[in-house]
Amino acid sequence: MQSMAAACSSSSSSRACAAARRSYPSPALPSSRHVALSPSPSSAPSSHGCRWPVAGAGAPALSLGIRGGLRPLPSPLLAARTRAAAAVAASPPAADGGGKPEGTDGIPRTLQLGAMIIVWYLLNIYFNIYNKLVLKAVPFPYTITTFQFASGSFFIALMWLLNLHPRPRLSLKQYAKILPLALIHMLGNVFTNVSLGKVAVSFTHTIKAMEPLFSVLLSVMFLGETPSALVLGSLVPIVGGVVLASMTEVSFNWIGFWSAMASNLTNQSRNVLCKKLLTDEEDSFDDINLFSIMTVMAFLLSAPLMLSVEGIKFNPSYLQSAGVNVKELCVNAALAGTCFHFYQQVSYSLLARVSPVTHSVTNSLKRVVVIVSSVLFFRTPLSPINALGTGIALAGVFLYSQFKKAKPKSKAA
């Protein structure tokens, strides 16, 4: 190739170039490929117009019938790469979630959420039954709340020690953000236990069916959501049904009533604020660690409250003097504490996967299962009007859930 370049640079350049071309003929190709193409930039021009392939171009040269024009033949490997790149560019973008097509994760996600809801319901049923048995034996709601948070803190410490879940590494600023949520979380459970100790389980959960009302109000205040007229209309039978059931409730007690209402406010405030914190881009909170830190903080906050209100009355001497079966009480308290922790953890895991309103609707529908289970277990007497009021309230919850599901569709249209 160097001798050819020297020949092209001599005084008789045209004859030398012609001789060189005859000495190094182009490879024979089918006649269908002899087309006029523009000169390739991969060929190096000489000072007299001759073009020769650059060393290392990787493709043989074909004379194109153009003065001084040579073009490298297309490489099969390069053509395959070009076709592959064109196919990738022309293919539609893959759906999120590991390149899977849209809709492939819908069924597994639905099954997962369904299983979580079933476990949540079962744990909540057993918690209400065992918790009511404990509150009947020892009417100390603050002490029982502290014991439940202590049980949860034990399971959380075990989870972190066994590395079942990575331990959180948070700053003081992040702990300061969680502290108000832990306080609300503690107060919500205190109010629930006060209500369960004063009235029947079914009546407490009938009152707590008003959670959609508080969910709408708090979502408007903190999340900026505007409810539709149908959603607001569905709140009317919920409130009316609770009022009707309250008027005919045998175990009605004002402390139990207002404690259940206060638990509605605190629990829904906690859910809305937790959802806001879980979706905050500045803080990397996961649902399990957020609930765990809140539980430990709630235990530390509930212990001084217990000592100031009830003192240390949960001791063997007091229980024996009150005629309480200590062994049975301890078993029921341990079961209630275990169910309490895990149903709360499942509830927070579900909250991280759905909206606060959907969580509230699912929680309200859970009342139906809990009310029926408690009535059957404790054989709670229900008058026809009381049952009618409970049914109207739960029907309002069903309408609320349907209207909330229909709202996004109307926006998209």
UniProtKB/TrEMBL annotation:
One Pfam family recorded for the sequence: TPT
Cellular component terms (Gene Ontology): chloroplast membrane
The keyword Thylakoid appears for this protein: no
Region annotated Disordered, chain positions: 23-44
Transmembrane segments: 111-130, 142-162, 182-201, 288-307, 382-401
Top-level taxonomic group: Eukaryota
GO biological process, one term: monocarboxylic acid transport
Main localization category: plastid
Location(s) in or outside the cell: Plastid, Chloroplast membrane
Topology within the bilayer: Multi-pass membrane protein
Family matches, as InterPro entries: EmrE-like (IPR037185), Sugar_P_trans_dom (IPR004853), Tpt_PEP_transl (IPR004696), TPT_transporter (IPR050186)
Keywords: Chloroplast, Membrane, Plastid, Transit peptide, Transmembrane, Transmembrane helix, Transport
GO molecular function, one term: carboxylic acid transmembrane transporter activity
Domain Sugar phosphate transporter: 111-401
Keyword Transmembrane helix among record annotations: yes
Protein name per Swiss-Prot or TrEMBL: Sugar phosphate transporter domain-containing protein
Protein species of origin: Panicum virgatum (Blackwell switchgrass)
